[in-house]
Fold:
Amino acid sequence: MRLSYPTNITIIQVPCTGRVDIIHLLNAIEDGADGVYVAGCLEGECHYMTGNLKAKKRVRYVKKVLEELGIEPERVEMFNLSAGEGPRFAEIAREMDKRIRELGPSPINNLKKAV
Amino acid sequence: MIVADRKPIQEILEMVKDCKKVLIVGCKGCVTVCNVGGSKEVGVLAATLKIAFKKEEISIEMDEKTLERQCDPEYVDQLKDMVDDYDGIISMACGVGPQFLSAAYPEQRFFPAVNTTFFGGAVGHGIWEERCAGCGTCVIHYFDGMCPIARCSKSLLNGPCGGSADGKCEISKDLECIWDMIVRKKMEHGRIDDLLEMKPAKDWQTARDGGPRKSVREELANE
Ligand code: SF4
Ligand code: SF4
Structure:
């Protein structure tokens, strides 16, 4: 199945979304990503039981951090889909791409431009 | 252990707003165990502050370091070669840490990143509760292993008060009345008569009320 999704998205593979920590999401934002999202398995279907639920809580934490800093929390998101849902994966990518385009570039990138 | 909570990020930002180079120092003691000031949390705070500064288009350098403990001079000493390289240092230890650091390096400014709250333990993943108030004269053996000093809102030695209802404390529906628990446990184990004996007022001189405290162990002390 060859499905197209926006090319500006960098995919980082992890064995389970439970491996995604707060620091990874923050580092992505700090390094200038306009948005970052975690695509985990459906809730209740984690091979490691609770990995995707942990990821969900960490995403929620990072949203709160961004909010405190005056940055749109929507730049960070958690999605759940099953491994067999290729079309849904592409759809989520387009959905996130659209959302970020509407928000515009991350305010973090102002400094880079200024320097 | 000593339990603490991270201060709101805006408060920390205000502390270091004039610094160009900052060191964040964590502690591997209690604050690591309660997930507030260990190396992981140091990393998260550093990333958060960097994002905040970048957003304001301010460039700032931030380094991270986590000491074995911040409440022991031998570990505090490990900062000596780097302490002068910074405009300010954030400590993520309990309130003891930044004080030991300030005393060791009087020229430097140290900022607390956490609010130190109580002596307690984890009752579930990510949930900590107060258990001891450090009164200096432990009396929990009279109360079947439960401390009314730390856990009763009024620190009653002869409870419960009239506000106890359905096992909850009158100050909040979310708080167990520890006196309800003490009475129940005494009844369950056939020791309710213990409570007929009135406990006299406690001597608070061993607590904070007697002024700052000090513990000297002759067999260990150098002087
Ligand atoms: S009686 Fe005093 S020392 Fe004992 S647990 Fe309570 S507060 Fe702590
Ligand atoms: S309701 Fe219970 S815990 Fe609350 S103040 Fe009264 S005796 Fe103490």
